[in-house]
Structure formats: C-alpha cells, structure tokens
C-alpha cells in the first residue's frame, strides 16, 4: 500500500515580504501569500489530490494558508488537527530582526550558522522580550521546559517527530490523503527525516512558499520518489532560489 502526504509551506507573510526573521511571531499572510495559497488549492484540485485531513501549526499564516487552499479545492470541510509541534523554528533573539542588517552586522558565516546550521541555535529570547511567545495563551498547557526560547533545526526535528509518528502516520496508515500546512523550517525537519538527508546536506535545502510538495510513501513510509514532487516544479525552482538568497544584497 502507498500513501499520499502533501507538504505545504504557508504563502508569503507580511514579515517574509519585509525580510524579517519570524519564527514563532504570529504574523499574517499578505495579498501575495493569500494568492499563493489559492494557487496551491488549485494545484491540489487539478492534480486530483484532495486531502482527507489537514494538520497545521498554531500560527495563523499556516492556518489561513490551509483554509484558503482547502476552500479553493472545495475541501474546506475536512478534519483539522493542529499542534505547536508543527510551528516554525523558534528564531530566538533574532525574531523581529532584519535579515540583511543581521548579515551585515555579524558577517556571512555567523548569519549562515544561525540560519542554516543543523545544531547551533541563535541566542535565546528572554520570556518578557517584545517578540517572545513564552506567555502566549496558546502554549499555556506546555510545561516551561517545552516552550522554546530559541531552536536550531535539530531541536525542531526532536519536537516535530513525535507528532509525525503519533498523529500523521496513523492518518496515512488508514489510507487518507494527508495535507500538512506548516513552515519553512518545520517542513525542512520533516523532509530531512523522510529523505534521510544528512545534518550537513540539510543546510542546502530550502522550501518555497505556497507550492504543494507531494510525497508518495511506500508501506514503510519511505518516499517512492526521493525529494517528492512539487506540483509546480518551475515555480518551485525559482522560489527556492529566492529563499536561499534572503539576506543577500
Ligand atoms: O524567518 C523565519 O522564520 C524563516 C522562515 O520565513 O526564515 P529562514 O528561511 O531565514 O529560516
């Protein structure tokens, strides 16, 4: 038996457009992001990939992307599950900072370590800082040690995988087509797991906004096509390059 898992990074957000580190800050989609989400829904429909269940993070850019895409594909009625474990990587003290200014201030090497190294997190964000989510009511049920103040990608893998195994795989096992609407770095964590990408090589993988990425999985939940298939490969290639170039002049 094979199963279908579709990964969808949210459409462009207000802070993506401003080139700011976002992480757990709950910013909304902009007009371009909403249009990308609609196009994502059209691609699901035209490829006959109609989700039976959707999993999202607790952040509105992913929630609204899923809603727009699913309503567009006439699947707005499907079962919905949400978890903080699908949230974007917490960007620590970088949240709210301009990416280009950060690169200029700290240099290319430090910028890339914070942005794409596997196991070096940015400095922690104090709980009472302006862009901290430490006391946000949506995380009130988490014990303090689970509420991040910064994360590297390795931390995201560790907190995301229990959700994948406990909630997403059981949906795949019952033959459902599963949509996961999440974020650049939580999707990178999941792709790293699915494709068995090394800690070094994952630095070079970027996820475009709003373009569904289909993984057909075998009965061991391994990809039949390594890397999956973007439903619009040309648009994905261009958008991936744009993500990789963020922060460059
Ligand atoms: O700012 C962020 O939260 C992420 C995703 O937008 O950025 P980056 O691609 O730099 O990890």
Kindly describe this structure:
- There is one protein chain.
- With 249 residues, the chain is an alpha/beta fold.
- The protein has a single domain (3-244), classed as Rossmann fold (3-Layer(aba) Sandwich), CATH 3.40.50.1240.
- The chain has 8 helices and 6 strands; from the N terminus they run E-H-H-E-H-E-H-H-H-E-H-E-E-H.
- The chain has helices spanning 14-18, 31-46, 60-72, 99-106, 108-116, 153-173, 184-195, 233-244, and strands at residues 3-9, 53-56, 79-82, 178-182, 213-217, 229-230.
- Helix 2 crosses helix 3 (60-72), helix 4 packs across helix 5 (108-116) and helix 6 crosses helix 7.
- The protein is globular, with a radius of gyration of 17 Å.
- The protein binds 2-phosphoglyceric acid.
- 2-phosphoglyceric acid binds at residues 16, 21-23, 88, 91, 115, 184-185, 243, 246.
- 2-phosphoglyceric acid is lined by residues 16, 21-23, 88, 91, 115, 184-185, 243, 246.
- The active site is at residues 10, 88.
- It catalyses: (2R)-2-phosphoglycerate = (2R)-3-phosphoglycerate.
């Amino acid at each position: 038996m094979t199963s279908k898992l579709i990964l969808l990074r949210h459409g462009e957000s207000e802070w993506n457009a401003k080139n700011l580190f976002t992480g757990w800050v709950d910013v909304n989609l902009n007009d371009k992001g909403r249009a990308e989400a609609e196009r994502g829904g059209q691609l699901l429909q035209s490829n006959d990939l109609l989700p039976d269940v959707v999993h999202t993070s607790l952040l509105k850019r992913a929630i609204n992307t899923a809603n727009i895409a699913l309503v567009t594909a006439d699947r707005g009625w499907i079962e919905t599950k949400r978890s903080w474990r699908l949230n974007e990587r917490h960007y620590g003290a970088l949240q709210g900072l301009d990416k280009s200014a950060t690169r200029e201030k700290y240099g290319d090497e430090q910028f890339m370590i914070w942005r794409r190294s596997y196991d070096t997190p940015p400095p922690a964000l104090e709980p009472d800082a302006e862009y901290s989510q430490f006391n946000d009511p949506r995380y009130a049920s988490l014990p303090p040690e689970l509420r991040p103040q910064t994360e590297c990608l390795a931390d995201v893998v560790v907190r995301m995988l229990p959700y994948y195994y406990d909630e997403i795989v059981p949906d795949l096992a019952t033959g459902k087509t599963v949509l996961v609407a999440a974020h650049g770095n939580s999707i990178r964590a999941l792709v790293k797991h699915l494709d068995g990408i090394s800690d070094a090589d994952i630095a070079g993988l970027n996820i475009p906004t709003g373009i569904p990425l289909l993984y057909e999985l075998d009965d061991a939940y391994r990809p039949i096509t390594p890397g999956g298939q973007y439903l619009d490969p040309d648009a994905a290639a261009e958008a991936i390059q744009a993500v990789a170039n963020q922060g460059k002049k």
